[in-house]
Design a protein that fits this description.
The chain is an all-alpha fold and 282 residues long. Among the domains are: 1-44; 46-145, Leucine-rich Repeat Variant (Alpha Horseshoe). It has 16 helices and no strands. The chain has helices at 3-44, 47-56, 59-72, 83-95, 101-114, 120-128, 132-145, 151-154, 163-176, 182-187, 194-206, 213-219, 222-225, 233-247, 253-265, 269-280. Helix 2 runs parallel beside helix 4, helix 5 packs parallel to helix 7 (132-145) and helix 7 runs parallel beside helix 9 (163-176). The longest helix is centred in the N-terminal third of the chain and has 42 residues, at 3-44. The radius of gyration is 26 Å and the shape is elongated.
Length: 282
Amino acid sequence: MSQQDNEEKPFFKVIVHSFFVVPFLIAVFCVLLFAAVNLLTREQHSVYDFLDDIKTGGLTKRWQGAFELSRVLANPESVPKEERFFAELISAFEHAQYDDGRIRQYLALAMGRTRNPVFIKPLVDGLKNEKDENLAALIYALGMLGQKETAAALYPYLEHPQSRIRSISAVALGNLAAPATIPALRKVLNDPEPNVQWGAAVSLARMNNADGKNILLKMMDRGYLSGFQEVDAQEQNNLLLMAVEASGGLHDTDLDNRLDQLAQNDSNMNVRSAALRIRHGT
């Protein structure tokens, strides 16, 4: 091997190292540094920091702060117990009435996720003059609070012109698990919109009422669900899982037979597993 060849090899090694390896390592270091800083920054953000973002930030920061707050409060251990927090969250919610709709929606969900009855009044009062775009979030939040005394405030929305609002109202009433809501939910089993019927049937079943049995059987039939173009494969699975979970406590022969069929033959593993667990406790 010539001296020139020996000199060229180190030269090419330097080129490769300088133009590829070193920049790559620098890039990797920068990505890791950014991820670490971002993680540390997020961890240091308290619920009060998010509330400050909502009060004083620009539009993007306000709605993102509301979103992050609702996300954090999904963990019960992250919900503060101080009166100060309750007061500030209510204040932020009330001041967001004429702000970007996302802020009001995420703040309503944040209140619902606390499951604290202190938020009943601001949410119920908020329904009275709420924009249609925000109604679903407030109604759903009241359902999450799970306080039976809020049922009366939700009944009127079972007759709302928008089927989405009627459906969310049926689900929210089911979350309250109040026997007094059964007559109202029975009525909407005949709603012209299937998604409202589905919500009512599932809510009734969760209270051990089988009046929506025929609707639950339909919800556990992929042939039936395939007739709705707006219901994609993932939504089909979600509806099946809802119906499976709701049907288990009714101990109805027809529903149990359908659960057995799903446990053995459904195309989705999660649906098969849920049906098997409900039927046999496995």
